[in-house]
Amino acid sequence: MTTAERSSTTAPEHRESLESPREWLQTQQGDWILPSINARHFGAQPGSAPETDQQESKSHAQTVLAEHFGDRLHREDRLYVIIGSDSGQLLRYIREHAPMPRGSRWLVIEPEDILQTLRQNPAIGALCDEFVQLVGFDEWQEQAALLQLPAYFRIDGVILERSLGALDGTDPQYVELTAHFDAHLTAERFRTTAQLNVAPFIEPHILSAPNFQGGIDSFEKLFVGRRAVIIAGGPSLDSQIDWLLENRDALFLIAVSRVSARLLEAGINPDLVVTVDPFPISLTVSRQMFDFTERTILVTSSHPYPAIANRWPHSLFCVGPIVPWADDSINTGRSISMSGPTVTHMAAQLAVFMGFSELIFCGLDLCHAPDGQTHASGSSEAAAGPLMEFSAVPVTTNSGEATWTTPDYYAGIRAMAEIARQATSVDFINPSPNAAVIKDVNHQPLDTIAIPEQTFDRKPLDRIRESVTKEAREATLQALNHSLSNIRDELQKVGNLAQLGLESNQAYFNLIHPGRQKRHKRRMQAIDRLFKGRFKRAARLAQRAATRAIMRTDLPHDFFALDRQQAEELASRYYDAIREEARRLIIPLELAQERVITRELELSDLANADEIAQRYIEHGEPERIRWLECRHDGADTSAMWEARSAYDDRIEHLLEKDRERNRQKRSPRVSLRQIERHFSTNNSEALSSLAQALEHHRESDIARPYASYARGLAAELSQDLLTAADMHAAALEWADPEHDAVLIEHTLLRLTHINIEAHRPSDALATLQTAATINPTHWRMAARLALLENDAEAGITALTRHLEQFPGDVKRIKQMVRLFVALKIPDGIPFCEQYLNYCAPAARNELEAFLQEARLALDTPAAPT
C-alpha cells in the first residue's frame, strides 16, 4: 500500500498537512513563538539544563536576540527596516530596551500570512505604535513615508536588518523580501544621497588636481554622428574581445579602467580609458592601465583615486572642475554631471557629450552570467570565482532568460535606462544575449552590426593631446598653486570663526553672563553672514565636507520637542563639524601644494631624476615613479629604486585586502541561498555551473558538500532521483555538523521528499526524524508521516519529542491522547497530564475535560495532584 493509499484510510483525527499552518506554541522556556519560523532559534537545545526558579523570569528568546543583535538595533537617529519579527519576539526586544534611543524608529516587515497571524495576537499589537510598526509588503512604502524615510537617508540613518528567521533563508518569502528591500533601499539611497555623500570625494579631488591637464570643454561634440564602443568589465566581454580585436582600427574605444589587463592581453589599446571612484580598489583592479601607449588618454571624474592620477604617465583630463571650490581662474569650460553608480555610466555620458550618435556596449551585463560570474576573465573577481553571498534581485536577460543581479547593479540598470532616455538623439546598443534588459538600450547581436572598412579618424583627439604644451602646463600649475594658497588661508579663518561660534553658542545657552546673551547671539549671526559672504567659498567647502554631520542637525525629530540642552547640542554640532573639516582640509591642501612644486620641477630642464624621485617619496606619491620612468628612459637612481619598492609594497597590501574582500563574498558556506534560488526557478544549468565552481573552489573541503547538494538538486530537476539521492547522501557525509547545520537540515528534507516520491516511507520517516534533531519543528511532520504509515510507536515518539520543545501545544497533546485511547494504553493519560500547566489558561479547562473523557474511555483513575 502506498503512502497516499494509507493516508486515505487513516482516521480523520490523525490527519494533518505536512505543511503545517502558522500557529502559536509555547516553548519549554515559556516563549510563545511560531515554530515554523523560530523553532531552531528559540527551542531548547540538546543537553540544555532545565529552568531554575531564578531563570523563569528571563526569556530565552530575548537572551538569544540579545546575543545576536547586541545594541545594533538601539542607536540614535536611525530608521531600522527589519525583515521579519521572529514571531514578534524582536518587537519585544526593541521595546524592552530602556530608554529608547532618541530619534530612532523601526519598520518591521512580514510576509502577508505571517503578518495576519501576528496581528491576531493582542500581545503583539500592544508592542506597536507610531515609532515601532509592523507592516506587510503592500503597506511599507506608505508607512516609510510617514516615518520620513528620505530624511533618514539624508543623514545616512537607514539600516536594513534581518531577523533570525530571515537570516536562515529557510522560508523563501523572507529571501524574496530581503532581496526586494536590499535592491530598493540601495537604489533609493543612491538617488537620495548622491549629492550629499561628498566628503569622501573632496580630499581625492584636491590631491588629484596637480595632475589634471585640463577639463573636457574641448571634447564637446568632437565626433558628431559617429559610433563609439564602450568596454565594460562584465563577463560577456570574454565572448566579444575577438570582435573588438578584429575591428579595432574601425572603432573608437572607450574602456573602463578595470578591463585594462584583459585588453592588454589581447593587444588592444583603447582611445580613452575612464575611472571614477576615489577608493583604493580602483587602483588594484586597474593597476595594468599604466602600460597603455601614449595615444590612450585618461579621462577621470574630478575625484579619482589620487594614486591613479599620480601614476598615469600620459594625457589626463577630468570631466568636472579642477578644484572643488569656486575659482574662475582654474575651473574653466564645461563639465559633466555624473549619474549612475558605475564608471560605465560616466563613460556613456562622456560619449554623449562628445557627440557620438551610436553607442555599442561590450561587457555591460549588470547581472550574473549563466556560470555565476560577475566580471570578465582577467579580473580579480573572475579569478576568485562566482559571487556566493549577495541579495539577489531577479532580472531578465536580452535572450529572455531569468537571472539574478545585486542591488547596486540593479540601481545601475535603472540609471543607465535614465541616461538612454535623456539622450534622445543617441542609439544605445547592447549585443550581449546574457546582459540584463535595460529600457531604451536595444539588443542587437554583434554579427548583425555593420563595420566600416575605413580606419576611424581620431585626429581631433590627437590634436587635444598635443595641445598640452609645456608652457600651458606651467601656467595651469601656477594658477593652481595660487588657488590652493588662497583657499588654505580662507579655511584657516573659517575654522577660527567656527570655533568662535561654538564658544558663543555655549555661552548663550549656558547663561554665562546673562546680560551678554544678545551679544553672543549677534556674534553668531555675524559669523553666519561671513560664512555666506566674505568667506563663502571656503565655508561652502567645509560645509560640503561636513554634509553628513550638518544634516544630523536637521533630524526628523517631530515626535519630541527640543529642550534647551538639545538645541545647544545641535548648534554646537553644526559649528564643530565646520571647524573640524576646515582644519582637516588644510592637510591635503598643503600636500597638494607640495605636489604642484614637484610637477613644476618635472617640467624643468635642470632637475635630475633622483631629485624628483626623492620628492615623490617625501610627499607620499611613490607611484609617480611610472611617470618619471617614461620621461627619463634609462635613469636608475637609488631614490627611484626606493620609490618603486614603496609602490610595490603599497600595491601588494591593497591586493591582499582585495583578495580578502573577494574571499568573504565567495565563501562556500554562503552559497546555500544561491543554490536554492536556482532550484526554485528550475534552473538546472545554473545549478550545474555553480556546482562546478564549488568543486574547483580553493576551500575544497568546505565547498565539497555544497557542490554535492547543488548536483543533487540539479538531478532532482532532471527527475533522476537515484543520482539525486546519491549526491545528497554524499553532501551529508562531507558536511561539518557544527558549521553546516542548515545545509544538513535542507539536505535531509530533500532526501525525505525523494524517499516519499520513491514510495519508501520508512526511509523517509528515518530521514525526517534526523532533520528534526536539528530543527524541532519537523517533529510534527515526523509524527504525521509515522501515523500515515500506521507506525504508532514512532508517531508517539515524535509527538513526545515535539512536546518536549513545545509542552503547551494543545493540538498535539490531544492527538497523543487519541492515540493512547485508540491503542488502549491507560498509562498514557497520566503522561499527558504533565503538560497541563504549560497550556494557555483559556485552553486548560477544555483540555482537562478532554483528558477526563479519555480516562473514562480507558477507565483510568486521575493522576494525583
* Strand segment count: 15
How large, in whole angstroms, is the Cα Rg? Answer: 33 Å
Total number of helical segments?
Answer: 38
Q: In whole angstroms, how far apart are the ends?
A: 45 Å
How would a crystallographer describe the biggest sheet? 7 strands, parallel
Task: Going across the biggest sheet, name each strand in turn.
Answer: 11-10-9-8-7-12-15
CATH class of the largest domain: Alpha Beta
The CATH topology of the largest domain comes to: sialyltransferase cstii, chain A
Mean pLDDT: 86
The secondary-structure class comes to: alpha/beta
Architecture (CATH level 2) name of the largest domain: Alpha-Beta Complex
Helicity range: 40-55%
Basic shape = globular
Oligomer: single chain
The unreliable regions are 1-20, 46-56, 557-561
Q: What count of structural domains?
A: 4
Strand content: 5-15%
